[in-house]
Amino acid sequence: MKIIYFDCFSGISGDMVLGAVVDAGVNPDVLKNTLRKLKLDDEFSLNFEKTTKHGITGTRAIVKTSIDSEEKHNHHTHSHGPSRHLSDIFNILDTSELDTNIRDTAKLIFDRLADAEAKVHNTDKSDVHLHEVSGIDSIVDIVGAVIGLTELGIEQVYASPLSLGRGFVQCAHGKMPVPVPGTMELIHGVPIHQTDIPKELVTPTGAAIITTLANNFGVMPNMSINKIGYGAGTRDLEEQPNLLRICIGEKIPITNEDSSNNSHNDSIEIIETNVDDMSPEIYGYMMDKLFEKGALDVFFIPIFMKKGRPATQIKVLCPSNIRDILIKVILSETTTFGVRFYAADRVILNRDTVEINTQWGPVKAKRGFLDGNLIKTVPEYEDCKSVAESNGVPLQSVYQDALRKT
């Protein structure tokens, strides 16, 4: 599986992401040509240049707009171009010629931005004026970042804890503390590292991109790195290189030999709601939608509600960064008018995958380890099913033969 790890030691912004993906090998011309599908050619130009920060060479993305002919102050200042509503941005995307996956992913990022701003300003997201993130440069940053990751063939995104600056920054609403309130809403539930750097290190655009796309925040996963890219910010930080580093490669499964504790803890979100007035046909459709959006698990529990009415409790397990996306699916696809959600800690066995040769053919199996010991082996259902159907034997026979040979 091809993955990317965002090492945000100096924070993250949209144009730093753009610079990093080009530095890692995305063809700038391909990126520019794909961005032309937005049909906004007369509103911006995009160029890239090599630059050095504390002796490390990276790539800087430079967006020039028809509103502001000066170079964008990427990462550390906020533009004050005309504001747009979420519907305006969606209209730009919907009328573009971008591939559906790129368009839909960009819309998820902007939707997350609007949710954060709406909460900060205590208003509906459809009424939010996205002052700081709706300029043409931010649209280019977000859509360009999605195009770049698509060109790199990324299947999963991981990130380090986010390094934050301190102090104040001038925004459309006046002087704001760093991180600005919108950014603080976006990084809710995400591991952070507070620095003494008196600058804005994580921008709303950067926060929206990484919190929407990342599957997990923490140390670098086991991986074989084959590409590294550095995206540069405009400012030269005295304390450290003003760079975003991305590492791209193949994910390596954790095995018994390379794990010391053989289990680990993390946190997930649980979303739930009770439904007593919905056609049973809808449940399967909704489950598919939830898994498509990244749910870890979805299950339905028969319950009885007031007056003895039979009902179904819907439960969804997910990473915290996609909780709001999955809540929207539930509210859109079911008859419920509300959901509950809460965080839960869990302990996960480290595992690896092995191939077992049954008498009818090979099947894969997961192995789980605890305290240095193999405690369980579970044959993969789809493999066992395929072998059983190909050989005309009972599924249970294949399953049991695989267990005997572990």
What tags apply to this protein structure?
17 strands; 406 residues; 3 domains; 5-stranded mixed β-sheet; 31% helix; 6-stranded antiparallel β-sheet; alpha+beta; Ubiquitin-like (UB roll); 32% strand; single chain; Alpha-Beta Plaits
Structure description:
This protein has 406 residues and is an alpha+beta fold. The protein folds into 3 domains: 2-251, no CATH class; 263-347, Alpha-Beta Plaits (2-Layer Sandwich); 348-404, Ubiquitin-like (UB roll), CATH 3.10.20.300. It contains 11 helices and 17 strands. It has helices at 14-23, 28-35, 86-94, 100-121, 136-151, 181-186, 204-213, 281-292, 323-333, 381-391, 395-404; strands at residues 2-7, 44-53, 56-65, 156-159, 162-164, 168-171, 174-177, 192-194, 216-217, 223-232, 243-251, 263-275, 297-304, 310-318, 340-358, 361-370, 373-379. The strands form 5 sheets. The chain has a 6-stranded antiparallel β-sheet, sandwiched between helices. Helix 1 (14-23) runs parallel beside helix 5 (136-151), helix 4 (100-121) crosses helix 5 (136-151) and helix 8 (281-292) runs antiparallel to helix 9. The two termini are 25 Å apart.
